[in-house]
């Protein structure tokens, strides 16, 4: 069994829950990491090359290649930090029962495959869609995308719906 298949098999399949009560502010994100540096700045530094910041930790230079579309950027303003499993998607798959602290950890998780530096308009096209509704335009990234999505869902004990699971299974086949 290849990486991801066992974790995917262990995920509970359930219809997506409702958006009742959802508000993005229920997932406090871009927490302070150290000094004036927040999670966004930390991920930009982690994912970029030759990244420089000013005295307030704002990124002023660097180069980033978005794994979703392969585009290279030199301005941080052209980039989003994507939540692999979007906050609204997490809400519909179980995060609605979490405490505010659990949601904050999820939204700022730099220890898993949850946060990625990506082209802003590609991330906006993704929105809060799951893999049954959206996949990265760069097909060569589908394997990593599926494994990362599954890792996050498994790590946080979130559910998957049937179409999402089927799409993840198909994307895992690209890992060969």
Describe the structure.
The protein has 176 residues and is of the alpha+beta class. The protein has 7 helices and 7 strands. The strands form 3 sheets. It has a 3-stranded antiparallel sheet with strand order 3-4-5, with helices on one face. The longest helix has 14 residues. The model has no long low-confidence stretch (mean pLDDT 96).
Give the arrangement of secondary structure elements.
Layout: H1 5-10, E1 32-34, E2 37-38, H2 39-47, E3 49-53, E4 59-65, E5 72-73, E6 79-83, H3 87-92, H4 100-107, E7 115-119, H5 120-126, H6 142-155, H7 162-172
Antiparallel strand pairs: 1-2, 3-4, 4-5, 6-7
Helix pairs in contact: 6-7
Task: For the record, give the distance between the C-alpha atoms at the N and C termini, rounded to a whole number.
Answer: 12 Å
Adjacency order of strands in the biggest sheet: 3-4-5
Radius of gyration: 16 Å
| Percent of residues in β-strands | 15-25%
Which overall shape is indicated by the principal axes computed on the Cα atoms? globular
Q: Helical residue percent?
A: 25-40%
Number of helices: 7
Task: Output mean pLDDT.
Answer: 96
Q: How many β-strand runs? A: 7
Query: Could you state the oligomeric state of the chains shown?
Result: single chain
Structural category is: alpha+beta
């Amino acid at each position: 069994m290849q990486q991801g298949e066992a974790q995917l098999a262990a995920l509970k399949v359930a219809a997506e829950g409702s958006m009742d009560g959802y508000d993005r502010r229920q997932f406090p994100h871009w927490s302070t990491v150290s000094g004036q540096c927040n999670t966004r700045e930390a991920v930009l530094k982690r994912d970029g090359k030759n990244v420089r910041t000013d005295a307030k930790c704002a990124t002023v230079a660097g180069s980033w290649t978005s794994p979703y579309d392969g585009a290279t950027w030199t301005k941080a303003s052209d980039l989003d930090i994507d939540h692999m499993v979007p906050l609204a998607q997490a809400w519909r798959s179980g995060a609605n029962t979490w405490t505010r602290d659990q949601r904050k950890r999820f939204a700022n998780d730099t220890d898993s495959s949850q946060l990625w530096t990506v082209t802003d308009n590609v991330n906006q096209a993704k929105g809060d869609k799951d893999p049954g509704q959206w996949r990265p335009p760069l097909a060569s990234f589908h394997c990593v995308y599926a494994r990362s999505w599954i890792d996050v869902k498994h790590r946080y004990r979130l559910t998957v719906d049937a179409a999402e699971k089927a799409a993840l299974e198909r994307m895992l086949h690209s890992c060969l």
